[in-house]
Automatic annotation (TrEMBL):
The lineage of its organism: Bacteria, Bacillati, Actinomycetota, Actinomycetes, Kitasatosporales. It holds the Pfam family SUKH-3. InterPro entries: SUKH-3. It comes from the Bacteria. This is SUKH-3 domain containing protein. It comes from Streptomyces griseus subsp. griseus (strain JCM 4626 / CBS 651.72 / NBRC 13350 / KCC S-0626 / ISP 5235).
Amino acid sequence: MHDRQHSSTRFPVAVDAALREAGWQPGRWDIRQAEEWADALRSHASPAGHQHAVFPAAVEAWAEFGGLRITASAPGRQIAPAAVRIDPLSGLHLARTLGDLGRALETEVSPLGAEGEEQAVLAIDTEGRVYSIDHTGDWFLGQDIDEALATLVTGAQPARLTSS
């Protein structure tokens, strides 16, 4: 098995193309920006005192993909592909919402970015799983950021999270 980080087949072709068009390349790593975001999230509290969780899986995703605006060039498979912006501060004022989702999933959740023109917020948990939260509910996008980006860029139908 090749090292996933340096394999040319890490992403499906359409996803790889969309990422490269957005400015991503293998080995991209802006830890300084990721740490600034981590500090901003850690220092923010909602009026009711809710705070953001910050953990390695989130910081790693921010370092590799932070600041990118990713748009698909092809129509979606099942739904229209979402334009994606990786910027955890788009979820800055959602500490309570993300905290509630984390409790429901029995993990911690941190903001990752936004879909479209802020129609949905993207979030990542401590295991690196990615979710989308919009006015219709909570959605599971993938076991890791790679899978989530593929779901979003190719317009695959995400799975709705249901309360147990």
